[in-house]
Amino acid sequence: MSMGVETPGPVLVLVAHGSRDPAALAEVRRLAGLVRAARPGLDVRLGCLGLSEPLLAQVLEQLSGPVVLVPLLLGRGYHVKVDIPAALAAAPQVDGVVTGALGPDPVLAEVLHERLAEAGWRAEEGSAVVLATAGSRDPDAAVDAERQARLLAARLGAPVRPGGLTCGSGVAGTVAALAAEGYQRVAVASYFTAPGDFARQACAAPGAWLAAEPLGAHPAMARLILARYASALTHPLPLAA
To answer: What is the pTM of this model?
Structure first.
């Protein structure tokens, strides 16, 4: 299917987690703006699962016909598997599909690398990285974080280990574990779509050499979103995936 301006296609709904932090909403709005700029003529909406407006349910109420929901989430978990499909099912006036999460993906490794470089990262002997995630009890989410860590490690040429804020030893514990293994410079890569409490906690991990900013509004993120959208038009995922 052509992705040109002359065939705008179904409405694209970006689904953010939502946050009480106004900086988080401002960043995902900027990301939505990059998507619109990359695909003029495409109707792009933004809906949040909670904590901030516009809520996804409210956005879907305003729509009818074909829609594609792209989660601005970085791995499989309850929101992707249950919450978003449930919101779509509660809007019978739309004919929609939900794409997979944005991660894991080599594009995210590219953006993470750039954010680390902006923070002062350089590949040296004795350097390692903690991929800071929110954490999840869902084993699929853990698998996705591990895969993203491997993708980033391949790009950096340095060890990368995931650390979840809400599970396992946490980000600080993972930093400490790498230091105990002899890594003298342990950086933290913020594996979050936007700033917020989790990103701040990750950046404040004691013992870290440096901490990078979240992925944020980056042109490569916009391209990845549009790739998910395009894939959904030809290979839609089942709602129960």
So the answer is: 0.92
Between CA 50 and CA 55, with CA 53 as vertex, the angle to 5 degrees is 55
Using the structure block, give the residue that is written with the tokens 């993470």. Answer: 112
Q: Kindly report the CATH class assigned to 11-102+218-234.
A: alpha beta
Please give the DSSP secondary-structure letter assigned to residue 19: -
For the purposes of burial, counting CB atoms within 10 Å of the CB of 56, is it exposed (0-12), middle (13-18) or buried (19 or more)? buried
pLDDT tens digits, 47-64: 999 888 999 999 999 999
Report how far residue 30's alpha carbon sits from residue 43's, in angstroms, rounded to the nearest whole number: 15
- As a dihedral over the C-alpha atoms of residue 216, residue 217, residue 219, residue 225, rounded to 10 degrees, the angle is 80
| pLDDT per position as a tens digit, 202-240 | 888 899 999 999 999 999 999 999 999 999 998 655 443
For the CA atoms of 62, 67, 73, 74, the dihedral, rounded to the nearest 10 degrees, stands at -170
H helix count then E strand count, the chain:
9, 8
The architecture (CATH level 2) of 106-211 comes to 3-Layer(aba) Sandwich (3.40)
Using an 8 Å Cβ cutoff, are 43 and 75 in contact?
A: no
